[in-house]
Amino acid sequence: MNEMRNRSYRPHRSRPGGERGARGAAKYRPHQTPLERRPHHNGTANAQRNYERYMALAREAAVSGDKVEMENFYQHAEHYFRVMRERTT
């Protein structure tokens, strides 16, 4: 039984053109630009929408008497409030 588990069922295939291929060694390429240089197209609008959504959910939880859920939603709303404040300064 252990033999079956330890065996690799996928055959080892080497890359064409040698170990790294004809393209050469892999290079580090960041996938995204740093946050400071990214444009904030509608990020503030999304943050405001999320802030309002979590505030509404917190109010609903308060009305239903669920204090834990209410606090959770208020904390989420506070996060988006800080995001909005950071992007407007």
Describe the structure.
The chain has 89 residues and is mostly helical. It has a domain at 41-89. The chain contains three helices and no strands. α2 (43-64) packs antiparallel against α3. The longest helix is centred in the middle third of the chain and has 22 residues, at 43-64. 4% of the residues are buried. The mean pLDDT is 77.
Short descriptors:
single chain, 89 residues, mainly alpha, 3 helices
Spell out the blueprint of helices and strands:
Layout: H1 2-6, H2 43-64, H3 67-88
Provide the gyration radius in Å: 25 Å
**Order of helix and strand elements from N to C terminus:** HHH
Taken from the alpha-carbon principal axes, the silhouette is elongated
How would you sum up the major sheet? none
- Helix fraction, binned, reads 55-70%
Structural class: mainly alpha
Total beta strand runs = 0
Number of helices: 3
Beta-strand residue percentage: under 5%
Terminal-residue CA separation: 63 Å
Which residues sit in consecutive blocks of at least 5 with pLDDT less than 50? none
Mean pLDDT: 77
Compose a concise summary of this entry.
This protein is mainly alpha-helical.
